[in-house]
Amino acid sequence: MTRIRAAVCHDFGAPLQVEEIEIRPPRGREVEVTLAACAVCHSDISFAEGAWGGTLPAVYGHEAAGIVTALGEGARGLAVGDRVVVTLIRACGQCPSCAKARPTDCETPQDGHHDPITTAGGGRLHQAMACGGFAEKVVVDASQVVTLPNGIALDVAALVACGVITGVGAVVNAARLRPGQDAVVIGAGGVGLNAIQGARIAGARRIVAVDMTEEKLETARAFGATHGVLATGETPWRDAQAALGRGADAVLVTVGAAAAYDSAPHYLARGGKIIVVGMPATGAVSTYEAAMVAGSGQSLVGSKMGDVVIARDIPWIVDLYLQGRLKLDELISRRYPLERINEAITDTKSGAAKRNVIVFDR
Predict the structure, then answer these.
(1) pLDDT above 90 covers what percent of the chain?
(2) pLDDT value at residue 352
(3) Beta-carbon neighbour count of residue 283 at 10 Å?
(4) Which of 31, 116, 120, 114 shows the shortest CA–CA distance to 69?
(5) Which one of 59, 65, 235, 267 has the fewest beta carbons within 10 angstroms of its own beta carbon?
(6) Residue 90 and residue 110: Cα distance in Å, rounded?
(7) Residue 100 and residue 106: Cα distance in Å, rounded?
């Protein structure tokens, strides 16, 4: 066992505690990654606040990148010294979902009783989302990592592990947006900005961003939105339809608010799709007029982690960045050391940050 520092959640809604924990060496298909950075995602905050339940104590964090420092005897295709992105997408490669190239829906559950981390005293410690990236090292399944080329900094690459693939993938893989079609993106946070970038890359005719402040709409325009609509109006969907000249072919809801899903059908054209990306708290309910959805040939499509195949999609996304066709550096609002993680979380919750990143000294 090796002693490392990590930010541990002991009680839902309480500040994370930076303390020493223990991590065991990798076994079987596992790989040890010494992290350079881990971004703060709203999903980490929701879990730490108890919105979706879970086991405590736990280490959250799932947008990470670093250097491979050890391999289990069954790990293949990786080498010590490789620069890698670390994701929460853990795929067995054998279940029906994996066989259909849907590793985000892998049906083989993680064995949470044998997590690679423990408290400093040897007590149980949950590696949340099969990742636990708010720590100096992680031990994860080899299916969760993708090697990186030179030319992309590791703190920038960390963003690709969740927010970028979720937003871009929701457009390309779930909505299957085609050139000339129109998109509405509800929420111009980290995932929403990447959905906007995905729509631009996919060749959307017009892209309308919907958010609560003019500042966020201005940021959305910088990432590719052609129009911005304030959600604070009585009927913002009419403003969006005026900008498009019609309803949208795809409405991507990237915020975890049930009310956003209540309004989403109003933005749609006939035959359009609502892409469910943001995750409200457990028990939150949205309502729809089913006859309108059926009569208009519309659909509601869930998208988990952008429906990505990381070995296929992450290299493509990184290559777009290296070509200058995808903004990543501009997504980082601030960098914080691990000791200041609670400041990073508070800033993220305020809505002021696109993405805050925890960086580890090496």
Answers:
(1) 90
(2) 81
(3) 8
(4) 31
(5) 235
(6) 8
(7) 10
- Measure the CA–CA gap between 227 and 191, rounded to whole angstroms: 18
Question: Using one digit for the tens of pLDDT, what is the confidence trace for 70-114?
Answer: 999 999 999 999 999 999 999 999 999 999 999 999 999 877 667
Instruction: Provide the token pair at 170.
Output: 């929701």
Distance CA 188, CA 192 (A): 5
In total, the chain counts a number of residues equal to 362
Query: Hey, which residues does 332 pair with through a beta bridge?
Result: 355
202-243 pLDDT, tens digit per residue, is 999 999 999 999 999 999 999 999 999 999 989 999 999 999
Question: CA-CA distance, 19 to 105, in Å (whole number)?
Answer: 33
The one-letter amino acid code at 219 reads: T
pLDDT at 276 over 70: yes
**Domains contained in the chain, CATH given:** 2-152+328-359 (3.90.180.10), 164-304 (3.40.50.720)
Q: CA–CA distance from 30 to each of 33, 54, 194 (Å)?
A: 10, 23, 30
